[in-house]
Each structure stands twice: as structure tokens, then as C-alpha cells.
Amino acid sequence: MLRFRDASIRSKLIALLVTVVFLVLLLSTAAFVVHDIRMFRTSMQMHLETLAAVLADNSSAPLDLDSAEAASHVLAALQREPSVVYAETIDGRGKTFAIYPQEAAAVPLPSDSGTGEPFVADGFLHVFKPIKLFPLLPGDPESGTLYLRASLEQLHKQLRRDLLIAAVILAVCLTVAILLAFFAQRLISTPIQRLVVATQEISTSGNYAVRVAKQTNDEIGVLIDEFNAMLTQLQTRDRELAEHREQLEEQVELRTQELSATAKDLARSNTELEQFAYVASHDLQEPLRMVSSYLQLLQRKYQGQLDASADKYIAYAVDGAARMQRMINDLLAYSRVMTRGKAPEPTDCERAWADALANLERRIHESAAVVTHDPLPTVHADASQLIQVFQNLVGNAIKYHGAETPHVHASAQRQPGQWVFSVRDNGIGIEPQYFERIFVIFQRLHGKEEYSGTGIGLAVCKKIVERHGGKIWVESQYGTGSTFYFTIPDRQ
Ligand code: ADP
Q: Which residues lie with the beta carbon below 6 Å from any ligand 1 atom?
């Protein structure tokens, strides 16, 4: 059932107005009916009292003369008064002397004759009036009584009439009140209704151009004015916001264009750089090999024939040429990650791991390293590059071992959208400030006398992992060991 407080303002107003009018009418018609009935009753009583007084006066002589016939005759005058249904003349000794109507049997009178005022009992109006007697002898009674019994039918009829009038007035007035209420509610609820419709339109369409027409200057008029002013403000703000957004979009568009141009430039120069590194390292190999082999020839042929300094210089030159050759080879390997990389395909990491260890067999054997691994998954990758990554990481783990026998352990963790691989060792560890630097090409933390190498291994790993859309990083406790992590995302 719809609760009153949830009903529309229109229904509430109509209900309120009709209820108030109904209550006012009900109270006023009830007052009217009560007043009218009281008046009617009072006038009826006064009338009967007067009648009773007249009859009592007229009955005095018949009683004195002891003429029942004359007394009946007096009472017979009541025929003109239809409301009186019974009357009695009672002599001074309390005996019934005459009755009206004549042929009626005597009826028992109310035991209590009251205070002399007319009174209602058993559905009748009873009137007692003393009849003054003129006693001839001392001791004779000085008064008799006249008794009238009137039907209340007239009163009831009047009551019914009054009620009918009241009902008609109530019905007519209520109809008028309902019509008025419908009209009056329009004055209040129509502007509110308009406000509601406008608010709904704004909330569904977001159109702040809507305005509500004001028709009155009362509080609702003020409310509509304020509402319209608020809409104007919102509209202005909305327009400013839209302009702002347009400007922003233009700027973003501009920046995006600039960015994509820069990205294109970057990609082009990157490719050019890679091409250059590849071509340079490839083309440098030949003359370098020549320099290197002629230097070695010089060394072999003239060793001990020139002075000691010359031998030393030649030895430096041979060494430098060899180092340069290694670096150029490494550079070539680095640039080949992009230029010679194969399309990724499902690659069994167990297999790749085994191949990497096979390539490192001699070094593992020499260092007596203990290399273990957890079950490894199949990922989407270039198999030979994955072997290269494992090989570089395990190779470093063995190379940078500490005083203890090298222990290397690999595992793989599933994460949403990718696999995270880790290669852990118990080697010398890395200080945190070098965690980024070690992945840069030719960056080393040790001299070649301490640990051999050119500083290309981790740079190659990084390039391979990034080519697969992954990341590589290290966590390490200096002096305790390092763990290298890299991710291989699922096929995109
Ligand atoms: P290289 O081994 O030829 O020097 P890398 O690029 O493989 O080149 O490594 C770069 C540097 O990172 C190394 O010089 C070494 O200092 C450090 N490094 C790499 N792996 C480890 C490791 N497992 N433990 C400690 N240091 C490491």
C-alpha cells in the first residue's frame, strides 16, 4: 500500500483540503443538529407545559364539583394536540378521575413525578401539573394532578429532517470542496511538478538549457528563480568545462602527435644505430683480424731479436688487438639479438636450461659448481635466445663465486600474465648502487685481471628479455649472493 508520506504533493494537498473541509462541515452540521433538536425539545416542553397548565386550571372546577364527565370533556380538548397520547386527571386523593382518550384503559404513571418540570422517560415526555382545588371542609385535599404523556415522534421526525438536511449540506459542500481542492492544489503543485519535470530532464539528458516558467511571486516563485539562476551557473560552468576539455584534447592530440613523431624518430635512429653497430663490428672484424695476425707474426718472428722494450710493446699490441677482437665479437652478438632474433614459439624451458648447462659443461666441471633447478615451464620465446640468457646468468653465477663451492639454483613462479624466472647463486654479491649499471653494455665492476669478461653478458640478457616484452633485475646481498630475475610474458 502506498504510504501517505510517499504520495504525490498533489494527492496530499487534495486529501488535506478535503479532510479539513469535511471535519469543519461535520462539526458545524453536528452543532446545528444538536442545537435545533434542543430548541425543538424546549419549545415542545414549553408548549406542553402551557397546555398542561391550561388543562389543570380548567380541571379545577370539575374536580371540585366531582364531575368526571366534565373532567373528561376538558381532557377531550387534547384531540387537537396529536403528540399527546395519554392524559389523566387525578383527584386530591391520588385516584384516577378522568382519562384521555376516554375509551383507553388507565396506564401506570411514572413512579417519580420529577421536580415538576417536564421530563423524558420510557420514550415519552411526561408532564405533571398540580390542579388547585377549593376544599369545602377542612381536611379535604387542596390539590389534584394533571398528567400528560406526549409521544416523542415529532422530535424524532425533526431529528431525521435535520440529519437529512445536514447530510445534503455535507454532500454539496464536500463536492464543492473537492472541486476547489483540485483547483487550489494546481496553484501549488503545478509549479512544483514543473520543477520536478525539469530536474528529471536535466538528470537524464544533462541539458542545462532547460528553464522553469515562473507564474507566481510567492515562495515557489522565489524557488523557481533560484533554480533557474543555478541552472544558468551550471550552464556557464558546463560550457567553460567543455571549452577547457576541447583545449585539453587538442593539447593531448598535439602531444601525442609529437610523441609518436619522437618515438618514430627514436625507433629509426635506434635501428640505424643497431645497423651501424652491426655493420661496424662486422666490417671491423676483417682489418682487425689482419692487424692481430700480423702482430702475432711479428711477435713470433722477431721475439728476442729486438730489444726488451720492443718485445713488451709488441706483446701489449697483441693483447690489445685480441681484446678489441673480443669486444667487437661481443658487440656483434649484442646487435644480433635484434637483427638475427627468431619469432617466439612455444619453448620448453627444461630443454633450454639443459642446453645452456651443456654449453657450460667444462666450466661447471672445473669449478665443481652445484647447479640445480625446480620444474621449469614452457613459454613463448626464441629458444636459442632463452638458452643464451640462462647460459649468461649461470656463467656469471659460477664466475663470480666466493670462497665456497658455487651453488646455482633456478626456478620459475607463475604470475598473472607472465612467468617470473630466477637464477640464484651464493657468490660475491653486488652492491645496491650497481644494480642498474651492470645491465649497461661494457659496464663491469671488476678489472680483467680479477675476472675475465667484456661486460656484455647482462646487456645481452636485458636486450633479449626486453625483446620478449619482459623485465630483468637483480636482488643481492653484497658478499652473500645474488638472485637475477627476469619475466617472460604470456603470448600477446
Ligand atoms: P662480464 O661478466 O663480462 O663482466 P656481465 O655483463 O655479464 O659482464 O656482468 C656485468 C658485471 O656485473 C660484472 O662485471 C660483475 O661485476 C657483475 N655481475 C654479473 N653477474 C654477477 C653475479 N652473479 N655475482 C656478482 N656480480 C655479478
A: 392, 396-397, 400, 425, 427-430, 438, 444-446, 453-459, 482
